[in-house]
Amino acid sequence: MKKLKPSLREKKRYIAFRVESGETYGKDAVVREILSQTLGFFGECTASDFNLWIVDFNKDTQEGFLVCNHKSVGKIKACLGLIGYIGDEKVHLKTLGVSGTIKSLRRKFLNKRPIFKSEKKEGFFIGKKVEIVRSMGECVDALPRDKELQGRLKRLKVKYLGLMKNDLGGKENAAGTQHGI
C-alpha cells in the first residue's frame, strides 16, 4: 500500500492543556471526561470528523496534549472549556496553546508552570485575620482564620481565598485604608 502524498494528508494540530484542580488525576479519568464531553456536545457523527486523540498526559504536572485535525481546533478548545467536573471534583481545563508539531508544542507550552512561593505569613483581609499560604507575583492564596469566612468557603467548596497583595493589610484595612504587605 502506498503512502499518501503530504499534500493529500489531513493537517494535524496539537493542543496543550492543563487540569487545574486541588486533586491529581490519571490519564484515564481525563481522557474519559474529554471524550464524553465531546460526544455529548457534538454527537458521534460530528465528533468522529475531529479525529481526536489524547496523546500524552503527565500525572505529576497535570499537563497533556491531544491531536485533532486543523479544522476542528476551535471546537475542541470549546469542549475543553466546558469541562467542569471530573468525577465529583470541580476542575478547570485550561488550554495552553496550539501548535503544528509536537516538538514546538513541548518547547512553547508544556512544563512552563507558574512559580509559586510557599509562605507562612499572616495578614488581614476586610479586617479578618488570614494566613498567606503561597504567592505568585501580586497574587496570593490565603486561608481565613475567621469562623464565618471558613464556613462560607466550605459551603462554596473552596479551599483558599484568591487575593491580590494590595487587598491585604492591617486591621485598619476594614476602615477603608489599604496597606500592602
Provide an overview of this structure.
The protein is built from 4 helices and 10 strands, in the order E-H-E-E-H-E-E-E-H-E-E-E-H-E. With 181 residues, the chain is of the alpha+beta class. Strand 2 and strand 3 form a beta hairpin. Helix 1 crosses helix 2. It folds into 2 domains: 97 residues, 2-Layer Sandwich (Alpha-Beta Plaits), CATH 3.30.70; 59 residues, no CATH class. The chain is 27% helix and 34% strand.
Task: Supply the key terms.
181 residues; alpha+beta; Alpha-Beta Plaits; 2 domains; four-stranded antiparallel sheet; 10 strands; 34% strand; elongated
- According to CATH, the fold-level topology of the largest domain is Alpha-Beta Plaits
Number of helices: 4
One letter per element, helices H and strands E, the order comes to EHEEHEEEHEEEHE
Mean pLDDT: 85
Total tally of structural domains: 2
* Biggest pleated sheet: 4 strands, antiparallel
Residue share in helix = 25-40%
CATH-derived architecture of the largest domain? 2-Layer Sandwich
How far is the N terminus from the C terminus?
Answer: 68 Å
| Radius of gyration, in angstroms, nearest whole number | 21 Å
What would the principal axes of the Cα set say about the shape?
elongated
The CATH class of the largest domain is Alpha Beta
Q: How much beta, percentage-wise?
A: 25-35%
DSSP strand count = 10
- Provide the CATH superfamily of the largest domain: Ribonuclease P, Pop5 subunit
* Strand arrangement across the biggest beta sheet: 2-3-1-6
List low-pLDDT spans.
Answer: 173-181
Structural class: alpha+beta
